[in-house]
Fold this protein.
Amino acid sequence: MAILVCGGAGYIGSHMAAYLKEQGEEVVILDNLQKGHKAAVEALDGKLYIGDLRNRSILDKVFTENKIDSVIDFAADSLVGESMTDPLKYFENNVGSTISLLSAMKDHNVKYIVFSSTAATYGEPESIPIVESDKTVPTNPYGESKLSVEKVLKWCDTAYGIKYTALRYFNAAGAHISGKIGEDHNPESHLIPIILQVALGKREKIMIFGDDYNTEDGSCVRDYVHVTDLASAHLFALQRLKNGGESAIYNLGNGKGFSVKEVVEVTRKVTGREIKAEVAERRAGDPAILIASSERAKKELGWKPQYDSLETIIETAWNWHKNHPDGYQ
Ligand code: UDP
């Protein structure tokens, strides 16, 4: 039986598909290639259907032409800033796509889904580290759209018996150990790839968004987790559901926080490059500190991150970026 990876040409989705193939799983990828890269699927030798999840006929085709027993869903828009200015895009795509997918799963009798959720479902944290039972009060439409899907999933379990696991990631980072696939967004907005673009001379400097937060050095603190470790958690989650596990929600992070300034410093060490940095205004909607407790995932899924040091995460990202300075082009 095959696993359908929706959004499998994107950053996390492509690492998921690569990991599944390495574990001997049969994989089918569905991606509309709006943000995803055909070259990523080619690099991992994946089977690709090009189409949008909101298009029911492509879903019927994929489910009819393949023996699919489970789905991992990454297909979404994921920029916090953009979601603030265009919330409808986020609800239409992120919620609409998954509803269409669930409806097709129901009709094709597919009973397991692992859903890509986010730390943004929590909003401003009530305490650190964040645990799954903490309040979810998203401060942006991106987080709200993912939380809405979690609610849809719950009712689809009750009504149709579709079992789900929602994985709330903290800051996904790094690249595949082979260097064949990695992170390529256009325009790039994430911290580590932007710092590496400075290291490559493609940008003049990194802007540190705020150094007046209530943190040790004043810059924001985040929990960076390697993209392949995220992938392994998804497979554990799927196996648990297939073994009769109940629907559940898990945080995925390393439980360690690094400030923006620390990330810049570690990147200087890893790359041996100077990397000019300048403090700028705060970015709207950024909480000061986001750190996960992933104890539940470790205990219930048996998840154990392999690339849990920031140096290793940045080394793998650097390996990708220096060999692909223009991404997949
Ligand atoms: N950040 C920054 N400069 C940049 C991009 C990001 O200072 O050019 C900061 C951002 O404010 C946040 C952290 O780096 O505190 C991680 O941001 P990113 O966009 O990578 O991920 P997010 O936390 O938004 O998911």
